[in-house]
Amino acid sequence: MAGAAAKKAAAARQAASSTYQPIILVLNLIYAAIRTFVSPRPFTVRWEGLGLAVLMMMQYTAYKGILEHAASGTTASAKSSKSSELTGGKSLDVLGLALLLQYASILSLRFICWGIWVFPIWGVYQLYSTFKK
């Protein structure tokens, strides 16, 4: 039984990986192309590079969380066929927020400097909503 559950979890992890990995890769390549060819500002500010590194680490962590969520069996298909929950849970929210801040950094450096603070605020809100229930 344990072997079958492990195989099912590995298959769910592989399915989530084949779905989300190309999406994340394409979005990051589009960002790099816009930043390189369209944006008037090159990567010259040291803090901007640090902020982008933090956002990339957040994307990687969120991606790993999405894979673990898929493997845990708490996806919509495991709950019911009528549920509209996407595979990834809260990690998908973190990924979306990181990508939003990354693309907002094209417009202004202030988005990335101040936007990084959204993550701890969001985390405190999620912690509060968890214990509120």
Automatic annotation (TrEMBL):
One of its GO terms (biological process) is vacuolar protein processing. It comes from the Eukaryota. Pfam families: TMEM208_SND2. The chain crosses the membrane at residues 20-38, 100-125. Keywords: Endoplasmic reticulum, Membrane, Transmembrane, Transmembrane helix. GO terms for cellular component: endoplasmic reticulum membrane; vacuole. Its main location: endoplasmic reticulum. It is found in: Endoplasmic reticulum membrane. It is a multi-pass membrane protein. Belongs to the TMEM208 family. This is Uncharacterized protein. It comes from Fistulifera solaris (Oleaginous diatom).
